[in-house]
Amino acid sequence: MINSLLKFFRTKIYLALTLLVMVLLIGILGFKLISGYSWVDAVYMTVITITTVGFGEVKPLDDISKMFTVFLILSSVVIVGYALSIITEYILSANNLDDLKRKKMQKKIDGFENHTIICGYGRNGKQAAKKLMSYNRPFVIIERDKEVLEKSQSEMVPMVLGNANEDEVLMLAGLERASTLISALPSDADNLFVVLSARQLNKDACIISRASEETSYQKLKLAGANNVILPDRIGGDHMASLVVVPDLIEFIDNLSIGGNENVNIEEIDVDKLYNTSGKLKTIKDLDLRNKTGCTVIGFKGNDGEYIVNPEAEIKLVPHSKVIVLGRPEQIQELNSIYDLD
Question: pTM of the predicted model, to two decimals?
């Protein structure tokens, strides 16, 4: 809607500029051919006639030249007036439409709850946004580069223009209502400042930060980051693993964790699998293998501890999670039986 209005105004501006050029050309050719002026004099007479500045004529005009001048004055008054009104309307409307677009975006952000805030829309930020979008998770992007924002701006992607180091910008992104913040800025110092600010504004949020230097890892953790990711280290480890255990890494790379129809791994809240207020069940009691074909490969207790390849007799306590592995059709069967979609 907003883009259509801007396009409409641009079309009217192009029309107004075309009419202005036509009046100039007609005036120059008219004074040249009808009055016999030189090209310079014809341009001069056309400009002072159109602008109505009141300067004197180059030489006296005959009757035909006078009639042509009257026609040029009347035409130029209408066309110049139209052009000025259109240009003024476009400038005012562009500002109003930008304000309207920002207000509409802010209203959408204000309605978010338990969303994710991504600080920085570089390579890491874009990858995080792409993954969250595939999961249909609400998120807000904070980016200080207006050009980057304008290139990527979409009604599907809520964005806030500003520096993530500033508390006001974080609040505009709804930090007090957010469940997670991802700081993906290129500078470790900036990420450290964002983590400190975010932890002060929301003590319960899960904060994930990017780090370029290993020396920044502990500083970011002390500042309040729950997780610190070193992309270069992960990339190097991955490449080395392809040399040491290539088949295993290729298998892991082919596992899809979410965002499409070929999901192989799911993390499920135990509370969604059965009513945990009654008698506690075990992994064996769920019998997911026979019901869906999926295999439980991990368990996370309500204390946050992970168990790989858990025993069948482990109690599925409230607020714990199970991690299951299966073929896409088996995962779909699991989602269908327990209505997890």
Answer: 0.63
